[in-house]
């Protein structure tokens, strides 16, 4: 097995194997990716090609569109064709790296692909899942943002948006005043200046920490923000960095709002090529029954709605609660939360769109929690104040990372501010977990996503009964079941008719259907009739999770009768009966 480890190894392999590797040039050995570093966009692209070439029987790599700057938006389809066509199975959609600086979700996606491939046929649960499900995995839906974050000096928070020019300061110029690496060390650090009367002081417990003075106290520092100069001469610094469109506020739905209400939402829903390409993909794959979007940070398992004006059906909330609360056990330090109630109002978000407009149960995981730095699992007490939390973070950097990520304050002469100091956290920290913690983060988040995928509908024709009423006349009882917690049609989809209802049919060469209906009480013979085309029973509300529905046909004929159940989100099953 060929192992791909650190960045140097990856780059050597890229040069050796070439960037045009496809499934037609598969290795003699299976590739094995190592998760000891973060993959930039070229490395991520090559890793996807390696995987597709190693497992051509299961994997198909596609570009679903181009980013604003022309990069491919990669999608990996995982399907076992021996167990059926992809559109005949429920599918799990997984995406990551929506915001440019939130990179580690891309590694979770790569890890998921590799884990499924390496354990098919070895772990029965994985084998069964892959035989019954399809996965559509997009490791970065903002490839320009990922490329910018890796290739340029940045803070841990920049650049988040789509790399499409945006006039943040309304001066008619675009992206003209971003951060500047003024000391040339490859990092964008904080600037502070010592002054006679300031609003900050050094923390007495750790002088690296700046704390705001209390009323009546005298400070001796001011904070000047991140490294930068006044590039456009308007008297401000860093007020118009690259990009500005928020790729998680550009989605149509029940609560999208224009930019003056929701910053970053864009001119109109799907105005960005990235969100438009993803939406086209979703609409072309109606079998998608579960959605997972990976962000960072905060250690959260989030669901909609993003604003209080939107209400979800109670039956759907019960399903969300079951999956989300199970996720809290799979992911220590993570909390299951409702976006608008427990976090903040976020209009036009992706998971609100996929649930509210497409009717798909959808989660966002905010990867990595600051509690994982210097707390213990199950610890509920928050630090006594913000300074204490920062102190713990620095202790972790000192004692576990050996001072790797905090840059000590150092003097610098700024062209406008004069003598200042530069210092603070490098971009590869705080929001980004240390690389040595990456395998567990990937595995646990994958496990949550696979649990979600396992809860997608699993339909069957669970029971049949034939009663002979007379010569060539029969009563057929047919029960259809869903053995998983997610219904074939969510309450949201049923309420707003978001996609085609489920369909139960009977057919046969020598068969005439006299009547049909749903059996509400078999013992009291309470039947709700189907008034037109009795050979086709429309299940407008689908099959709820972990339940079954029973139907009755009165038919005339002989020979074979074929029962077929089709659910957009649940697949297709058949059963043949013999009338004699």
Please, could you describe this protein's structure?
The protein is of the alpha+beta class and 580 residues long. The protein has 3 domains: 37-149 and 247-370 and 442-454, Aminopeptidase, CATH 3.40.630.10; 167-242 and 371-425, no CATH class; 459-579, Immunoglobulins (Immunoglobulin-like). It is built from 13 helices and 25 strands. It has helices spanning 7-17, 41-54, 104-119, 124-132, 143-151, 273-284, 314-330, 339-343, 350-356, 371-374, 386-399, 438-454, 491-496, and strands at 2-4, 31-33, 59-66, 72-78, 91-96, 134-138, 190-198, 200-203, 206-212, 219-226, 288-296, 300-303, 335-338, 361-367, 406-414, 418-425, 459-470, 473-482, 502-507, 511-521, 526-529, 536-539, 547-557, 559-567, 571-579. A hairpin with a 3-residue loop joins strand 24 and strand 25. The chain is elongated, with a radius of gyration of 28 Å. The model is unreliable at 8-28 (pLDDT under 50).
Topology at a glance:
Blueprint: E1 2-4, H1 7-17, E2 31-33, H2 41-54, E3 59-66, E4 72-78, E5 91-96, H3 104-119, H4 124-132, E6 134-138, H5 143-151, E7 190-198, E8 200-203, E9 206-212, E10 219-226, H6 273-284, E11 288-296, E12 300-303, H7 314-330, E13 335-338, H8 339-343, H9 350-356, E14 361-367, H10 371-374, H11 386-399, E15 406-414, E16 418-425, H12 438-454, E17 459-470, E18 473-482, H13 491-496, E19 502-507, E20 511-521, E21 526-529, E22 536-539, E23 547-557, E24 559-567, E25 571-579
Parallel strand pairs: 1-2, 5-6, 5-11, 11-14, 12-13
Antiparallel strand pairs: 3-4, 4-6, 7-10, 7-16, 8-9, 12-14, 15-16, 17-18, 18-23, 19-22, 19-24, 20-21, 20-23, 24-25
Helix pairs in contact: 2-3, 3-12, 7-12
């Amino acid at each position: 097995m060929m192992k791909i480890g650190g960045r140097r190894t990856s780059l050597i392999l890229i040069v050796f194997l070439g960037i045009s590797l496809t499934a037609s040039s598969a290795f003699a050995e299976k590739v094995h990716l190592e998760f000891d570093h973060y993959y930039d966009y070229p490395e991520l692209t090559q890793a996807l090609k390696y995987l597709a070439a190693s497992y051509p029987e299961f994997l198909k790599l596609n570009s679903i569109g181009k980013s604003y700057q022309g990069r491919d938006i990669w999608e990996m389809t995982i399907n076992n064709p021996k167990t059926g066509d992809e559109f005949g199975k429920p599918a799990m959609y997984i995406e990551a790296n929506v915001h440019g600086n939130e990179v580690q979700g891309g590694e979770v996606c790569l890890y998921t692909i590799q884990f499924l491939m390496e354990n098919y046929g070895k772990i029965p649960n994985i084998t069964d899942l892959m035989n019954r499900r399809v996965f559509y995995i997009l490791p970065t839906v903002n490839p320009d943002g990922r490329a910018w974050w890796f290739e340029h000096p940045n803070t841990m928070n920049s650049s988040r948006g789509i790399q499409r020019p945006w006039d943040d300061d309304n001066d008619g110029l675009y992206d003209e005043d971003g951060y500047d690496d003024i000391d040339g060390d490859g990092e964008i650090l904080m600037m502070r200046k010592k002054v006679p009367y300031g609003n900050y002081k050094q923390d007495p417990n750790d002088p690296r920490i700046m704390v705001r003075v209390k009323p009546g106290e005298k400070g001796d520092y001011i904070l000047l923000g991140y490294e930068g100069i006044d590039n456009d001469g308007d008297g401000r610094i860093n007020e118009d960095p690259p990009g500005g469109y928020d790729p998680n506020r550009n989605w149509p739905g029940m609560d999208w709002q224009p930019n003056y209400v929701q910053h970053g939402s864009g001119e109109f829903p799907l105005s960005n090529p990235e969100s438009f390409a993803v939406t086209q993909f979703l609409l072309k794959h109606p079998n998608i029954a579960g959605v997972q979007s990976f962000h960072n940070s905060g250690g959260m398992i989030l669901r909609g709605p993003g604003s209080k004006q939107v209400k979800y059906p109670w039956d759907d909330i019960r399903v969300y609660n079951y999956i989300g609360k199970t996720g809290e056990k799979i992911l220590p330090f993570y909390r299951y939360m409702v976006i608008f109630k427990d976090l903040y109002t976020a209009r036009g978000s992706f998971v609100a769109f996929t649930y509210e407009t497409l009717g798909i149960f959808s989660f966002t995981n905010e990867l990595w929690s600051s509690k994982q730095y210097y707390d213990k699992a199950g610890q509920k007490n928050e630090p006594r104040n913000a300074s204490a939390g920062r102190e713990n973070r620095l202790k972790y950097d000192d004692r576990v990372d050996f001072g790797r990520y905090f840059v000590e304050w150092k003097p610098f002469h700024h062209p406008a501010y004069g003598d200042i100091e530069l210092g603070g956290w490098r971009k590869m920290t705080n929001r980004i977990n240390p690389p040595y913690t990456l395998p567990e983060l990937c595995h646990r988040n994958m496990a949550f996503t696979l649990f979600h995928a396992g809860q997608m509908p699993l339909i069957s024709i669970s029971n049949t009964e034939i009663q002979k009423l007379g010569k060539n006349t029969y009563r057929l009882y047919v029960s259809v079941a869903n053995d998983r917690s997610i219904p074939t049609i969510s309450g949201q989809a049923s309420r707003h008719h978001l996609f085609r209802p489920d369909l139960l049919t009977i057919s046969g060469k020598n068969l005439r259907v006299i009547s049909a209906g749903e059996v509400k009480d078999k013992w009291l013979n309470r039947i709700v009739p189907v008034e037109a085309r009795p050979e086709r029973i429309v299940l407008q509300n689908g099959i709820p999770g972990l339940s079954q529905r029973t139907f009755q046909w009165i038919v005339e004929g002989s020979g074979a009768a074929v029962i077929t159940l089709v659910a957009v989100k649940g697949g297709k099953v058949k059963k043949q009966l013999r009338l004699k």
